[in-house]
Amino acid sequence: MSLISIKNASKIFQHRKPRMVLRDRLRQFTSKPGKEGFYALRNVSFEVEARESIALIGANGAGKSTLLSLVCGLAQPDEGSVEVHGSIAPLLELGSGFHMDLTGHENLYLNSAMLGMTKAQVRQRYDSILEFSEIAEFIHEPLRTYSMGMSLRLAFSIAVHCDPAIVIIDEVLGVGDAAFQRKCHTRIAELRDEGKTLLCVSHSPETVLEFCDRAIWLHHGQLLMDAPAQEACAAYMRFVADPTLPLPGMPSPEN
Ligand SMILES: Nc1ncnc2c1ncn2[C@@H]1O[C@H](COP(=O)(O)OP(=O)(O)OP(=O)(O)O)[C@@H](O)[C@H]1O
């Protein structure tokens, strides 16, 4: 059985996110809002097997984060189905369950429980979580006194300690300073080598090729290409360099 099975999934929004209005206006000639709503994802299908590492690539607004949110169960498809078999560590919207008036220690327990860890597991992994986060000396301070980088370090550290079957990563490898980013890269590589299934979004072809064997190229909500990472990245980068090139599986603009 596939760990993730996505069949003809579509996500339709009645209105696009306000922060994207300007960008979307610029894109009005290519996107097709339609009176039935705006398809952030349209008829997307693919399967993910255990131990695969897959990147979602594509331009801003292509639907990558929307697809991750369907896989994480944060949103439901309006058409088609999304099935996930296995526990998930969502490294996206890191620390979204954090409470500013609680201490780092209290948030650690709360957030770990939200990610499915039992109290005993948190106790067992507590020192390791703190050590990885490098913020042990502030752990009994309220979270509102933390910098954004410190909160993200704590959130990332908790998420990578929850021993999931599937790790979902949305551009979080930009967490913290350069040294901490390197540490995060190493930890992600370890998770992959331990046999976790990775599903990640990245705008960096280097990151995609570092972590992923396979890449799925989304374009205006549609799946354009599902291929070995090298092949999909090369095709996508060719298109980025020359957007007049015909898209894979689509007729050339002259036709
Ligand atoms: N909650 C929402 N309400 C309305 N529209 C949304 C919502 N979330 C996403 N969208 C729209 O869906 C489209 C896909 O957005 P999404 O964030 O999935 O793209 P993305 O590929 O992750 O982009 P980026 O690379 O910029 O993060 C965009 O046009 C966006 O405006």
UniProtKB/TrEMBL annotation:
One Pfam family it belongs to: ABC_tran
GO cellular component, one term: membrane
Keyword Nucleotide-binding: yes
CDD domains reported in the protein's UniProt record: ABC_KpsT_Wzt
Domain ABC transporter span(s) in chain numbering: 24-245
GO molecular function terms listed in the Swiss-Prot or TrEMBL record: ABC-type transporter activity; ATP binding; ATP hydrolysis activity
Listed transmembrane segments: none
Record SMART domains: AAA (SM00382)
InterPro entries for this protein: AAA+_ATPase, ABC_transporter-like_ATP-bd, ABC_transpr_TagH-like, Bact_Polysacc_Export_ATP-bd, P-loop_NTPase
Keywords recorded for this protein, A-Z: ATP-binding, Nucleotide-binding, Transport
Keyword Cytoplasm attributed: no
Family affiliation: Belongs to the ABC transporter superfamily.
Annotated PANTHER family: TEICHOIC ACIDS EXPORT ATP-BINDING PROTEIN TAGH
Stated name of the protein: ABC transporter ATP-binding protein
Organism, scientific name: Paludibaculum fermentans
